[in-house]
Design brief:
By secondary structure, the chain is of the alpha+beta class. Helices cover 50% and strands 7% of the residues. The protein binds protoporphyrin IX containing FE (HEM). This is Cytochrome P450.
């Protein structure tokens, strides 16, 4: 998921206009409005008799819909509309109809009970046609035999049965991460955990996918991967994919030869990088996802399918885990007593076993597990997860959602639902004290039994949830066994508490504004 900052609607249009041969835009937008008015006057009414109409906010304008109503962080406006109109709303994103769901039970009905009809992905020129090479891999494709088998292969390889071998590969990086944040704090007085977490998270995925790690941010491979990732994120973003919302802008895309340009990027930058990584993985002696997939049955092992799946994993798995951990650092810097309880519980395990616990032993750390889950509930890593597409008309709670609609789960509203989470606006560290279940297992339960909804839904539920949980757990126990997290200090020695109210729109992910803390070495560490 991308680390590129999203654009406001106004910025987005300015950018399009500045990149486009002048008159074309004016002609295009004029034509767009006329075409829309003409077409919409012939359009059938989607509301079937006897079904409730999904409420839609006021202020939708022809062709552009509600796009001009959205600000830098669209989910905030969506939430205001949900407060006014209820748990399901229809927002016109240009010509696309987005149905946003803010209630866990309703979301379960939409994405799980009706999963057969709501598990498509909306078509996008870059992601579907260019990046996914016409539907390969997992993220951008719609369910097919190859898609199901590829997801299955990933779940089989990145699973608890391979826990020990996966974490053995990445734990040296986690140890290095802890040393790095301690060292930076010693030298500079505080540390911005964004970059070290991004680097560590990338290495976790690289070791799982290719059995390979990067030594430092100066490594040319690191620079190449981050450049390809950020270019992929930019091209998948709304400014570049504007034709999905305003198809008439396809004329502009044609004039600036956008699709050819997208294909060129994939062929000249993305494909050679991943081809090389996969070849090195095959020649190496470390077990990894790429190698395992290439050794599997026909539907999975086709080279382009493996290549896109590896790219999916890096794109979907690096920033999401890093953002979750950034939030944990900034939240916990404000809660010294919570950290003390985390340390006491962890130290008890270390005293008994003379080593750190593994994820399989999470039952011994109910408080830590509860705090991890509460951090994820309190500050979700994404705004809307990834959008799904309805491939058939469906009916939920009397509402009709038509074929072709985009359906999104509103992560912020879902996690502040008072019926599911009493005092939802409060950070309650022991909220999940009686729920030490693995998060990836919980993610596959019915809504009432889930801890949180960060890993999405149904047939598309995040296949990397186990790896994410493994990474989070291993970083967590190493940090709290050795360190105390504190807020940075101003010139007078007063704490500057990190801002936990501002949410940044960084594409799909929503990181904190300035994840700057002090990480101090524990003087009473047992290991
Ligand atoms: C805290 C960390 C993570 C969060 C919050 C997260 C969240 C999500 C969400 C919300 C989705 C969309 C689900 C849906 O469409 O309903 C998703 C999909 C996906 N995630 Fe994750 N993810 C995380 C870590 C990872 C990791 C580590 C990997 C790497 C293996 C990964 C790989 C994927 C893939 C391949 C998909 C696409 C699934 C599909 O389209 O069927 N994720 N993730």
């Amino acid at each position: 998921m991308t680390s590129q900052r999203d654009l406001t609607t106004t910025e987005l249009f300015n950018k399009i206009i500045s990149n486009t041969p002048g008159g074309a835009v004016v002609v295009t937008l004029g034509a767009a409005a006329c075409t829309y008015l003409l077409v919409s006057s012939f359009k059938n009414n989607n509301n079937k008799i006897g079904w409730r109409e999904v409420p839609s906010p006021k202020g939708s304008v022809p062709y552009f819909g509600h796009l001009f109503k959205l600000d830098e962080v669209p989910v905030k406006q969506f939430n205001k509309w949900h407060e006014e109109l209820g748990p399901i709303i229809k927002v016109n994103m240009g010509v696309r109809e987005w149905y946003s769901i803010a209630d866990p039970l309703l979301a379960h009905q939409v994405f799980n009970i009706n999963g057969k009809s709501t598990s498509g992905r909306p078509h996008a020129t870059f992601m579907t046609e260019c990046y996914a090479l016409g539907g390969k891999g997992i993220v951008a494709g719609s369910p097919s035999t190859q898609f199901n088998k590829t997801r299955g292969a990933m779940l089989q390889v990145i699973s608890s049965k391979n826990r020990a071998s996966i974490e053995k590969l990445f734990n040296p990086d986690v140890d290095a991460f802890v040393e790095k944040i301690l060292d930076i704090t010693t030298k500079k007085g505080s540390v911005n955990v964004l970059e070290p977490l991004h680097f560590t998270s990338l290495n976790v995925i690289l070791t799982a996918c290719f059995g390979k790690r990067i030594e430092s941010t100066e490594d040319p491979l690191f620079k190449e991967i981050t450049s390809v990732m950020s270019e992929t994120g930019r091209r998948a973003g709304p400014a570049e994919e504007i034709t999905s919302f305003l198809p008439i802008m396809g004329i502009v895309d044609f004039l600036i030869r956008k699709k050819r340009n997208m294909r060129q990027f994939v062929q000249e930058k993305r494909d050679p990088l991943f081809t090389q990584l996969i070849q090195e993985a095959v020649e190496g002696d470390v077990d990894c996802l790429a190698k395992s997939m290439l050794a599997m049955e026909d539907d999975v092992n086709e080279f382009t399918n493996v290549m896109v799946t590896m790219s999916d994993s890096i794109m979907a798995g690096t920033d999401t885990s890093a953002v979750m951990l950034q939030w944990a650092f900034v939240i916990l810097s404000r809660y010294p007593k919570v950290q003390q309880e985390i340390r006491e519980e962890l130290d008890q395990f270390i005293c008994e076993h003379r080593r750190l616990p593994t994820l399989d032993e999470r039952e011994s750390l109910p408080y830590s597990i509860s705090v991890q889950k509460e951090c994820m509930r309190y500050k979700p890593a994404t705004m809307f997860g990834l959008p799904h597409e309805c491939t058939e008309d469906i009916e939920v709670s009397g509402y009709h959602i038509p074929k072709g609609a985009t359906v999104v789960s509103n992560m912020f509203a879902l996690h502040r639902n008072e019926e599911f989470y009493p005092n939802a606006d409060k950070f309650i560290p022991d909220r999940f004290l009686n729920d030490t279940r693995a998060m990836h297992q919980s993610a596959n339960s019915s809504a009432e039994k889930r801890d949180h909804f960060n890993f999405g839904w149904g047939r598309r539920v995040c296949p990397g949830a186990y790896l994410a949980e493994l990474e989070i757990f291993n970083i967590w126990v190493r940090v709290f066994a050795k360190c105390v997290i504190k807020p940075p200090l101003d010139g007078n020695g007063n704490p500057i508490y990190p801002d936990i109210d501002t949410i940044i729109n960084a594409g799909i992910v929503t990181p904190p504004k300035n994840p700057i803390v002090r990480v101090i070495k524990r003087t009473d560490a047992l290991l």
